[in-house]
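Quarterly update from the structural biology core.
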Amino acid sequence: MKLLLLRCPKCNQALSPGQDDQIIQCPNCRAAVAVSEGGLALLAAQYAAPTVAQPASWLPFWVYRGRVTIKQRRTQGGRSAEKDAQAFWAQPRRVYIPAWACELAEARDLVAALLEKQPFLEAIIPPEGAAFEPAAVTPADARKLLELVIVSLEARRDDYLESFDFDLNLESEALWLLPAERRDDAWQLLLKRF
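Predicted structure, tokenized:
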């Protein structure tokens, strides 16, 4: 068993991550700190411009540039939405994957909405006192969640999906902190142009 010194690598403040936390915020210097078996490390995190002066919360998202290549899409019966599917996935897209601990259905709905809307993220200087939710999803888990969402989106199309095979190519991984507030038991993002 390896013991880790849980102090911020930037300011030496004591840290107390939760059991599932992969990335936490230092309470003193506000740095994003990655927690792993190998130790603690500073992580670059971008804050996205909000639509309000002081958002209630900041949510961590893994953001990638990605492309889905459909290898096979089989349906039952005569209807097929393959042309719609090909058109949707034909261009590279920015992919936003929730990194905090949230319900699978909420994560799926957020990923789907962001995939379709493709909001522009404008980086800002971290706001004074901005606190973000700890990230519990690793980049490897983010990819698995995205694969599930892609299949879920295809299953929602107006045909009877029987099987779906695709390749997923993700690049330029980054951690973004998106402004949000909780409304009616769901997170609402407060992004410009969303």
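Residues 139-155 form the longest helix (17 residues).
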